[in-house]
Amino acid sequence: MSVAFRRESDEEHLEPTFEIPIPPGPNWVTQRGLRLTREKVEALEAIDTAAMSEDDAKKHKRELRYWRTRLATADLRPVADGDAVSFGVRVTYRLNGQKKTVSIVGDDEANPNEKRISFSSPLARAMMDAEAGEQLDFGGKADAVEILSVEPIKED
């Protein structure tokens, strides 16, 4: 039989598995974000992988590596003063005639459904250093965003 028709093993035809991508840039976290990251690592470390299938154990270990890396590189930022838009503030703004409020947090803590956006998101970057009353360009439109109020995030 020709070598072209032989397969050494099924392993060589599997899709490669990659590490979970780490967001580029600094790993800034709020106090809440640091707590959530610690809790995630602790929860993953508490899971016994012995009873898992090999694939599930590999996925679990990959996720644990991600969260351990995020915990090791976490940079707890000081509480913002709320004078201007920055990391760790809650911003109320008007966009397209709609009033909205978001908190600017770290990449892993961001969740748009909870009105938490990453400091690296386009909207947060557009608002950085703005103060209440300012109008900002966004999405190619002049004066698209009006900053209504800025306050430090107060977590429990």
UniProtKB/TrEMBL annotation:
Residue ranges constituting the Transcription elongation factor GreA/GreB C-terminal domain according to the UniProt record: 82-151
Basic and acidic residues composition bias: residue spans: 1-16
Annotated spans, Disordered: 1-26
Keyword Protein biosynthesis: yes
Claim: Protein biosynthesis is one of the keywords in the record: yes
Keywords for the protein's UniProt record, in alphabetical order: Elongation factor, Protein biosynthesis
GO molecular function: translation elongation factor activity
InterPro entries on file: GreA/GreB_C_sf (IPR036953), Tscrpt_elong_fac_GreA/B_C (IPR001437), Tscrpt_elong_fac_GreA/B_fam (IPR023459)
UniProt name for this protein: GreA/GreB family elongation factor
